[in-house]
Amino acid sequence: MGLALLTLAGSVAGCGEKRTNPGPADVADTGALPKAGVVKAESPTLKAVQRRGYLNCGVHQGLVGFAYTDNRGDWRGFDVEFCRVMAASIFGDPDKVRFVPLTADNRFDALAAGRIDVLWRNTSWTMDRDVGGRFTFAGINYYDGQGFMVRRALDLNSASELNGARVCVAAGSTSALNAQDYFRSRGIEYTPVVAPTEEAARQAYGREDCDAFTADISALAAARTTMADPQQHAILADIVSKEPLGPVVRRGDEQWTALVRWTLNAVILAEEMGVTQANAKQLAKDSADPRIRRLLGVEGDFGERLGLSKDWALDAVVGVGNYGEIFERNLGAQSALDLARGLNAQWNARPGGLIYGLPIR
């Protein structure tokens, strides 16, 4: 008892002392976190990008909706625009980016070798990729799932009816592994027709080298638009996997990982708060909402903590748009794919989805 009282007395006596390293007890006593000082970003990747003058961004070599070149040779797509978001955040210019088209097989080698600074290529976040020691996922920009596309003439209602079927799939993808799991777990015999790329798998399906094509639902929707008669092809209702897609960086540069994570998060928050490409500049001047003021750099030093200007998120939204705007023009109602938001709706939408912005404060 005496020892306990002595300890308590010592704690009370120390209350008047200035402590430079508050511990958990100090946070619990005050009910608030201590104010953090600004830490200058020391990212070797960011320094290399700034010195070079543009971002090297790895993307799909050709997937409608996500990454493809239009008839003028300009890059378009959902993932492409997130590359532009990063360029706008870093340089204030969304065009300061070089797109590096990559296959499923060579994307990670390109990242490891430093040919790209970040991989935005509909890549699934899996345990094997995350804990392998070389790479880090910085977030999720699209929630997908794997399915199967077949010709309507086969009159199939479910993937479980594909017994004995030939199934086209891309090499080096999680789709090939998921197909194995799906058919093996159900005792269904099938013949994989493995193509070097997703595009080659689609072309093989178009030539009728296989009975079904398996890939992410979004990729199947994109593939169907390229068929001679899209109405003759059906995407089966079965969803056989979870595919959380997001950006990947090399492990070991935490400041760069944070920059990628928070540029993605900034455009997600912008949609949630009603900040658009059209009104962002005006809201930066007029908004009294402290959340918007922090996001757009009017209050706080959040850009400096990333090694960027105070206007980093404002530049991203003005240069490219918020998450909803990016989605709609590439994948949603304004695009050829016309995909519903589904799981990719904001958490507070009706019906709600899984897109949830982390707080900037």
Automatic annotation (TrEMBL):
Keywords: Signal, Transport. SUPFAM superfamilies: Periplasmic binding protein-like II (SSF53850). SMART domains: PBPb. GO terms for biological process: amino acid transport. CDD domains: PBP2_BztA. InterPro entries: Bact_solute-bind_prot3 (IPR051455), SBP_3_CS (IPR018313), Solute-binding_3/MltF_N (IPR001638). Residues 54-283 form the Solute-binding protein family 3/N-terminal domain. Belongs to the bacterial solute-binding protein 3 family. PANTHER family: AMINO ACID ABC TRANSPORTER PERMEASE, AMINO-ACID ABC TRANSPORTER-BINDING PROTEIN YHDW-RELATED. This is Amino acid ABC transporter substrate-binding protein. It comes from Brevundimonas goettingensis.
